[in-house]
Write a structure and sequence with these properties.
536 residues, alpha/beta, six-stranded mixed sheet, 21% strand, disordered C terminus, FAD
Length: 536
């Protein structure tokens, strides 16, 4: 279908949010012509998208479904550059993310203090969005007829029970529904954005865009197309200027203007939306002039207040009997054939899960806070008192267990593994219109992004701001300490992968001790056999 030169509504950005907006508007009134523009390719029936178990492939630096923003070198990262991945495919993060069903806390929405954005006002929309495919004791806050499916997937690694037993022994209570908007401290078997009936990932593009285009003609789709800028006439946005995501001829840029009769919605994501606005002349006048763009709207906050959750991984060796996805990730032909056959035949097996079967949201106790006060980074106490203390629904940290080695499989040693991954729980305390990232994190650090020229292909001046607020350090350390304690209480535990952990002095009480003799012998046999196979 040819893309018209003029439509009623243009949605700039086909990510998780943009797909919902475009699909809902097109279904609201079939006489409305809606255009959705996405820089990445379509995800329609893409096996790298709909097979849940291979999602890590989308995170690699050579991925075609993600783009990567490199920040300035940072003194807070010992001179290194942060690399921030962003989805580069229709459906956005919902097409390539970890598929973890996670809701914000009620106070996060109420903190906006904005009309229409209170938790009670948003619950009907949350319910309308989802089909909750499990037994439920909270039917008043979950939906059962929405386009996006929520389930445990069609496979569960047994390490889930081991993890939950260990966290309960630490005083982290098991809860049936950690996503009830009110529980800020607890453990659960983690739900996933996976359709239980098919074993497929449930993403916003298939749920809202492809399903609409299959039955209606009023939703137009442009993929592999970048929005250069919004076209302004006076104080009114009248259209958008678009270019190919990659120039067909180096040094030459072919563009097109598409006009909107009613509305233009910019939903390019946390990093792309500010750049679109700035190239349009909307932002800090001084910075726009420096980049060679004529200022049209004085809005200095555009591109400020970037925040992201800090994700860290710590990998542990697992005992030989523990089931994991390691042999599949290594490329074992027999294992891969078995796994793919099982999924292709009936949508079950290891490909029908993300391997993240359980996790926690946690808040520190007073004793733990007192311990943090004695660390070299005691600044978190002020953040706790001002933001967390009186809002018990807000967790400080999250960590989950992954049933295998999560990282570059080319450097994976022989044996079996499990991985703990952690991130600061965040929801920015700003208005609903401010720049923000995912809906579940609270770091205090802030960064920024600004264009360096009018050229949409030029990289921005991006400062991730990671760890530039000292209040973020203590909870990151505390989260690692808690998850390490969980790992060492698990039956699966067979030691640490040293390269994935801090180096402790030989006489440090934190240093991992040798395993008992029986376990050492059992694990040694397995590793030696694997080493022989590789040598042969």
């Amino acid at each position: 279908m040819a893309i018209p030169d003029e439509v009623d509504i243009i949605v700039c950005g086909g990510g998780s949010c943009g797909c919902v907006v475009a699909g809902r508007l097109a279904n609201l009134d079939h006489s409305l012509s809606v255009l959705l523009i996405e820089a990445g390719e379509s995800n329609l029936n893409n096996p790298w998208v709909f097979r849940p178990g291979i999602y890590p492939r989308n995170m690699k630096l050579d991925s075609k479904t993600a783009s990567f923003y490199y920040s300035r070198p940072s003194e807070w990262l010992d001179g290194r550059r942060a690399v921030v991945p962003c989805a580069h495919i229709l459906g956005g993060g919902s097409s390539i993310n970890f598929m973890m069903y996670t809701r914000a806390s009620a106070s996060d929405y109420d903190d906006f203090q904005a009309k229409g954005w209170t938790t009670n006002e948003l619950i009907p929309l949350m319910k309308k969005h989802e089909t909750y495919q499990r037994s439920c004791n909270n039917r008043d806050i979950h939906g059962f007829e929405g386009p996006i499916k929520v389930s445990f997937g069609n496979y569960t690694y047994p390490i889930k029970d081991d993890f939950l037993r260990a966290t309960e022994s630490q005083g982290i209570p098991y809860t049936d529904d950690l996503q009830d908007l009110t529980t800020g401290h607890g453990a659960e078997q983690w739900l996933k954005w996976i359709n239980r009936d098919t074993g497929r990932r449930s993403d916003s593009a298939h749920g809202y865009v492809h399903s609409t285009r299959a039955v209606h003609q009023n939703l137009h789709l442009m993929t592999n197309t970048k929005v250069e800028k919004v076209v302004l006439e006076g104080d009114r946005a009248v259209g958008v200027k678009v270019v190919a995501t990659k120039p067909l001829t180096p040094g030459q840029m072919s563009s097109r203007v598409i006009r909107a009769r009613k509305q233009i919605i910019v939903s390019g994501g946390t990093l792309s939306s500010p750049l679109i606005l700035q190239r349009s002349g909307i932002g800090d006048p001084e910075k726009l002039r420096k980049a060679g763009v004529k200022p049209l709207v004085d809005l200095p906050g555009v591109g400020l207040n970037f925040q992201d959750h800090y994700l860290t991984f710590s990998t542990y060796r697992a005992k030989p009997h523990v089931e994991s996805f390691d042999d599949f990730a290594r490329g074992d032909p027999a294992v891969q054939k078995q796994v793919f056959d099982q999924w292709n035949i009936n949508g079950t097996g290891p490909l029908a899960t993300n391997g993240i079967e359980a996790g926690v949201k946690i808040r520190p106790t007073e004793d733990e806070l007192a311990t943090m006060d004695k660390w070299p980074c005691p600044e978190f106490r002020s953040g706790w008192d001002s933001y967390f203390k009186d809002k018990p629904d807000k967790p400080v940290m999250h960590y989950s267990v992954i049933a295998g080695w999560f990282g570059d499989h080319m450097v994976m040693p022989p044996g079996k593994f499990f991985t703990m991954f952690h991130f600061l729980e965040v929801w920015p305390p700003f208005s609903p219109t401010s720049t923000r990232t995912n809906i579940k994190q609270y770091p205090f650090s802030r960064g920024s992004t600004h264009i360096t020229s009018p050229d949409p292909y030029d990289a921005p001046d991006f400062d991730a701001g990671f760890m530039n607020d000292k209040r973020d350090m203590a909870p990151m350390v505390w989260g690692y300490v808690k998850s390490r304690e969980t790992a060492r209480r698990m039956d699966a535990y067979a030691g640490e992968v040293q390269s994935m952990h801090p180096f402790y002095a030989y006489d440090s009480p934190a240093r991992a001790k040798d395993m008992d003799l029986a376990t050492t012998k059992a694990v040694r046999v397995s590793w030696m056999l694997a080493a022989f196979d590789c040598a042969d």
